[in-house]
Write a structure and sequence with these properties.
- This protein is of the alpha+beta class.
- It is built from 7 helices and 11 strands.
C-alpha cells in the first residue's frame, strides 16, 4: 500500500484472517481472474469477471454470483465438459474508503484457490447465504464456488498471509455491514468533534509543531475506517502531508448500539 499512512503497532487490531473475511463478505469491488485461459481471438488471459455479489459459506468457500456468460463461468463450464472440473482462479478484492480522503484505497485482498460451479439444485440454498442482498433472478446468472488455497491481505494494518483454515474460522467484523453509512454520518454530522481529536493527537506527533513551536493545525480530518476495536481518522492538508491516528474504544463493541456509546465516550474525553 505505497503512500498509505499506517498507525503505530501498539493498538488493538483485528487479525489478518478477520480483516480478509470481512472484506470477502463486503460489497467491495472484486474480480475473478483465471490465469492461463484465453478468450476467442485473444492471445492473453481471458478478461476478469466482476464478483461484487459474494458470501462465505460455513466451510470457508467463497460463493460468487456471476452471469452465466462471464469468462469465469465459461471457464468452469469448459473444465466440466473436459472432465477437469476445478479451475485455478484468483479473487482480488479492492477496499475503497466510503468518504473522500487522500489515498482512498484502504486495502486489497487476494484469495487463490479452486473454482467450480454450484449445482443448480443447490442454488436456492446458496442464495440464502447472500442474506437477501441480491437473489438469483433468472437462468442468466449462476453461482460459482471458490475453495481457498492461499490468501493475502495488504491493508491499513499491513501485509499478511492468511491460511485457508484461519479464513474459514474467522468471523467478519460486526460493524462491517454498516461501516460505510456510519463513516459518512460521522464525516457529515460530527466534524467539530472529529476536529477536536486533532488536538489530542497533535501533542504526540513529532511533526506537530511549526518553526515557532506552536501546534500545527491540520486543515482536514475525516474518519477512514471503523471496526469493533476503534476508529481511524485521517488528518491532512490539501496539497500537503498527513497522517492517520487510531482511537481505541474503551471496550470492543458488538453492534451499532454499543458503537454509539463508545463514540459518545470518545468524544466526551476530548471536550471535558
Amino acid at each position: 500500500m505505497m503512500g498509505q499512512p499506517r498507525p503505530a503497532d501498539d493498538v488493538r487490531q483485528p487479525k489478518a484472517a478477520e480483516r480478509l473475511r470481512t472484506l470477502a463478505e463486503s460489497d467491495a469491488s472484486a474480480v475473478i481472474s483465471i490465469p492461463g485461459t484465453r478468450s476467442r481471438g485473444q492471445t492473453g488471459a481471458a478478461g476478469p469477471t466482476h464478483a461484487e455479489t459474494r458470501a462465505v459459506a460455513p466451510d470457508g468457500a467463497v460463493i460468487i454470483l456471476v452471469t452465466a456468460d462471464s469468462p469465469a463461468a465459461r471457464a468452469v463450464a469448459a473444465a466440466d465438459l473436459g472432465g477437469t472440473h476445478d479451475v485455478t482462479a484468483v479473487l482480488e478484492i479492492t477496499d475503497v474508503a466510503p468518504v473522500a480522503v487522500p489515498h482512498r484505497i484502504r486495502g486489497r485482498g487476494w484469495i487463490t484457490g479452486w473454482l467450480s460451479a454450484v449445482p443448480r439444485s443447490r442454488h436456492a440454498a446458496t442464495a440464502r447465504l447472500l442474506d437477501g442482498r441480491l437473489p438469483l433472478r433468472d437462468r442468466h446468472e449462476t453461482f460459482l464456488r471458490l475453495e481457498p488455497g492461499e490468501a493475502w491481505t495488504d491493508d491499513l494494518w499491513g501485509a499478511s498471509a492468511v491460511e485457508a483454515e484461519e479464513f474459514a474460522a474467522a468471523t467478519p467484523d460486526p460493524l462491517s455491514r454498516h461501516e460505510a453509512e456510519l463513516l459518512q454520518h460521522l464525516a457529515g454530522a460530527h466534524q467539530d468533534q472529529l476536529t477536536a481529536l486533532c488536538a489530542v493527537v497533535g501533542d504526540h506527533r513529532d511533526d506537530a509543531e511549526d518553526a515557532d513551536g506552536e501546534l500545527d493545525q491540520w486543515d482536514r480530518v475525516a474518519p477512514v475506517s471503523l471496526d469493533r476495536f476503534g476508529i481511524r481518522l485521517r488528518f491532512w492538508r490539501p496539497g500537503g502531508g498527513g497522517f492517520d491516528a487510531r482511537f481505541d474504544f474503551h471496550a470492543p463493541v458488538r453492534d451499532v448500539s454499543e458503537l454509539r456509546q463508545a463514540m459518545h465516550h470518545l468524544f466526551a474525553s476530548v471536550t471535558r
